[in-house]
Amino acid sequence: MPHPYDPSRPTLVLVNSFTTSSELFREQFGDEKLTSTMNLLAIELLGHGKTRTKSENFTYWDTAIMNCQVMEALGIKKAFVLGSSQGGWITVRMALLRPDLVGGLIPLGTSMDYESERTRSLGCWDGVAACTPLVEAWTSNEPTPNFEPDDSFCDYLMDNGFGKDSDTSIRDFWKKTIKANYRGDDGRKRIRMATINLRERDGLHGRLFDVRCPVMWLHGTSDIVYSMANVEEEIKMFVNSPDAKLVTVKDGHHLLSASHPKEVDEALIEFVTQWHKA
């Protein structure tokens, strides 16, 4: 939370993407117009950033429960929730588990399905093929005190998240951040479980009927992980939302809040202002 909590303002909870951290939202934290309109609270998923748990096994549902507990511990009675990539399906889980706490959803560059043949046929990535070699490489009965993710993994994330032509400074920052966060045996265990969750998560199609808050889905036209064809189908599944709309960002990449912060922040202000205390 970049500024002290102001209960007179709406609150936006931010949920980061796979193996990133709250640093994914640096542009939002630095946007004075955004921070003067709403409180920003980034909660790093289990297995990510500085969040730790004694359990080696955890799921996206566990993170959704944890996020709601954090809100309650901070005295936040209701908030809008933004999620990037895997954060997108965390936002929906939060709304399903605690609809009293969630005033609206802002998924970014995400999918509501599991890693299915359906999504692959619509032009999404093959998450099973991408994750399986990583899970296998990071599974060990022997301690790995010298472990850290290699350059090829970090470059793959940046290619998918920001595009192959992304700035060197962005690549260097995230390479350093990811390597530092997932270093050593504990780091290997956390990144392994995060990858298993990404590969083996359950889909949400049958549950979207139960989402009854407004939804603004932001998606970049250059997202190479989850396709426009997929999101155009899935936004229609929020049949009981009072307003479920898709906002496309021209040339936007998968990690949209970082690749196109101006467009995202402007849309956030409009959406939150419209639905706060509506």
Assign the structural class, choosing from mainly alpha, mainly beta, alpha/beta, alpha+beta, or little secondary structure.
alpha/beta
Order of strands in the sheet with the most strands?
Answer: 2-1-3-4-5-6
Let me know the average pLDDT: 97
Strand content: 5-15%
**Net shape:** globular
- The strand count comes to 6
Major pleated sheet? 6 strands, parallel
* Helical percentage: 40-55%
Element pattern in H and E? EHHEHEHEHHHHHEHEHH
Q: How is this structure best described in words?
A:
- The protein has helices at about 25-30, 30-35, 60-75, 85-95, 115-120, 125-135, 150-160, 170-180, 185-200, 230-235, 255-260, 260-275, and strands at about 10-15, 40, 80-85, 100-110, 215-220, 245-250.
- Helix 10 links the parallel strand 5 (about 215-220) and strand 6 (about 245-250).
- The chain has a six-stranded parallel β-sheet with strand order 2-1-3-4-5-6, sandwiched between helices.
- The two termini are about 25 Å apart.
- It is α/β, with parallel strands linked by helices.
Quick synopsis:
This protein has 278 residues and is α/β, with parallel strands linked by helices. Helix content is 44%, strand content 12%. The chain has helices at 26-29, 32-37, 60-73, 86-97, 117-121, 127-137, 151-162, 168-181, 184-200, 228-234, 256-259, 261-275, and strands spanning 11-15, 39-42, 79-84, 102-108, 215-220, 244-249.
